Amino acid sequence: xxxxTGILLIDKPANISSFGVVAKVRWQLSQQxxxxxxxxxxxxxxxxxxxxxxxxxxxxxxxxxxFSKLDKTYEATLRLGQTSSTGDPEGEITDAYNIQPxxxxxxxxxxxxxxxxxxxPPAYSAIKIxxxxxxxxxxxxxxxxxxxxxxxxxxxxxxxxxxxEVKISCDVxxxxxxxxxxxxxxxxxxxxxxxxxxxxxxxxxxxxGNAHKVNxxxxxxxxxx
Length: 225
Description:
Layout: E1 6-12, H1 18-33, E2 39-41, E3 50-57, H2 64-68, E4 72-80, E5 82-84, E6 93-95, H3 103-111, E7 115-119, E8 128-129, E9 132-133, H4 134-139, E10 149-162, E11 165-172, H5 178-189, E12 193-203, E13 206-207
Parallel strand pairs: 3-12
Antiparallel strand pairs: 1-3, 2-3, 4-11, 4-12, 5-6, 7-10, 8-9, 10-11, 12-13
């Protein structure tokens, strides 16, 4: 069997890390090929998040950067009135402000985040600080100074609102943290907010509808764009 090479579109399930997805796919392809197969990712998703991951296999591992800076589409559900130490359901949840914004107030708040904005990525993220993953430092209780970055939100739509839950859909530039966007929306509303569900539905021209489940991976599913 030739060395498998190409990209693989995976629909990541919840409750597994991106590195866990890579390890599982690597094991499956290596078992099928009868030899070790190189597999890498082109951008992580939080363990609680689901949706599209583009994995690079074989010779395409050298081309990972081509797929890591693409614009993305997300669907997110946020909960108003509470905050999370990690910005997601895995953190320590704290009651914030019992304010129920109107749909008009919510729409007005969302509009403030369209275009180029400045974000401070969450301490619980895979960004490297002095050579170490920020989330590892945060878990040790160390204070992590995260550098701000400019990102672009080209679309931010309200899909559904039934207090305290809000569902949004957005198109964003690479490097945008939805957990941070949600927290900033909560601050803008004066209510606090954190992300309870997150799904990535598009990366560049690739859509999650064409992705495969982790357990269904075979070399025949690889594509060479």
